[in-house]
Amino acid sequence: MRILVTGGAGYIGSVTAALLVEQDHEVEILDDLSTGHGEAVPDGVILHEGALQDDDHLDRVFAQPFDAVVHFAAFSLVGESVRDPLKYWRNNVGGTLNLLQRVATGGARRFVFSSTAAVYGEPDAVPIGEDAQLAPVNPYGHTKLAMERALADAAEATGLSAVALRYFNAAGAWGGRGEDHDPETHLIPRLLRSLLSEGETFAVFGDDYPTPDGTCIRDYIHVRDLAEAHALALAWAEQPGFHAMNLGTGDGHSVQEIITAASRVTGLTVAPPVQPRRPGDPARLVAANDRARRLLGWSPRRSDVDSLLADAWEWHRTHPAGYSG
Ligand code: UFG
Questions:
Q1: Disulfide check for 303: which of 67, 154, 222, 252 has CB 3.0–4.6 Å away?
Q2: Cβ distance 241 to 163 under 8 Å?
Q3: In degrees rounded to 5, what are phi and psi of residue 5?
């Protein structure tokens, strides 16, 4: 297939683009490099450097139609979205509408969208199924849900086949591509970077949650497993319509369990201080993943915590300053 990957210079986007190249698809990337890294773009892949809001740029990219679009390009920092919500609405929703406009007028027949567990907000029960209430608790989640709805409406009207993949906690590294955000807010990179540099601080945000060890529980999923789900979704997306699927392992791990595993994997002592809770963190987020298993034939293969941490550790150890180092 001829596939456009937006955000293909980012963390999950670049690992997915590399897998699609491995599978002999013809891949092009659209990325404005505002948070992505040119070094992450797979060899031989055309990078259209520019924004989704740039109409002339999009016209040039879509001059020759694609069979499919995989849409990652979006801002994704929850805290920043609370401080500057319009930046998120403008970029995430505005950019998606521009892209869908091109797709709806013959730009592609298949569309796979990078969504998030943040569309569920604070769930009533775990594991969380796709039919759980959609009630985001921050602007980032609101914009992702709005994009899902725009996509569902466009699919209904145009016969597009659209799949929204709702990731739980992406982690790990693959093929020389890893997590390099600035600022970095995520647990595993912050924890591992604090082991590599004295200048990087790390603390546990709250140990008084209603969980067995008092720290928050999350469902960590390897970035290569996420990439495989995108490849399967592209092949599966033939029938018109919109489908949402969770991507997680179905198993939760507490922050303390991740710290213990990091100590095991790195051979280093990890004993971080505990700070107050970070506002807005739900105690427990774990995916029900039967829909992706059943419809796509997907299953996580590298997401056991030790493999995931070992891959992340290898990447951070060899890239102590991220892509620039
Ligand atoms: N945590 C720490 N210390 C840190 C960083 C994180 O203790 O330095 C804790 C958090 O408080 C949380 C857990 O580690 O309990 C995981 O935090 P992350 O920031 O790694 O991930 P989140 O679960 O907050 O975020 C993920 C996705 C978001 C998505 C959100 C949905 O990364 O994109 O789930 O709730 F919006």
A1: 222
A2: no
A3: -110, 110
Do residues 206 and 59 both lie within one domain? no
Same domain, 152 and 231: yes
- Residues of the domain holding 166: 2-170+220-247
Pocket test for ligand 1, best of 145, 218, 220, 223 (most atoms within 8 A of CB): 218
Q: In this structure, are 156 and 133 located in the same domain?
A: yes
pLDDT at 215 over 80: yes
Distance (Å, whole) CA 106 – CA 235: 19
Dump pLDDT digits (tens) for 12-36: 999 999 999 999 999 999 999 999 9
- Angstrom distance (rounded) from CA 194 to CA 272: 9
Ligand 1 proximal residues by C-beta, below 6 Å? 76, 78, 116-118, 140, 169, 185-187, 190, 202-205, 216, 218, 255, 278, 281, 285
Digit-coded pLDDT (tens) for 127-168: 999 999 999 999 999 999 999 999 999 999 999 999 999 999
Residues 162 and 53 in one domain: yes
**pTM tops 0.85, yes or no:** yes
- Report which ligand 1 atom has the smallest distance to the Cα of 77: 33
Rounded to 5 degrees, φ, ψ at 151 are -65, -45
Please give the Cα distance from 21 to 19 (Å, whole number). Answer: 5
Do residues 29 and 143 share a domain? yes
Q: List own/partner pairs for 256-262 with CB under 8 A and 24 or more apart.
A: 256/204, 256/207, 256/213, 256/214, 256/215, 257/213, 257/305, 258/187, 258/188, 258/191, 258/220, 258/305, 258/309, 259/191, 259/204, 261/305, 261/306, 261/309, 262/188, 262/191, 262/192, 262/195, 262/309, 262/313
Q: Could you tell me which residues are beta bridge partners of residue 254?
A: 217
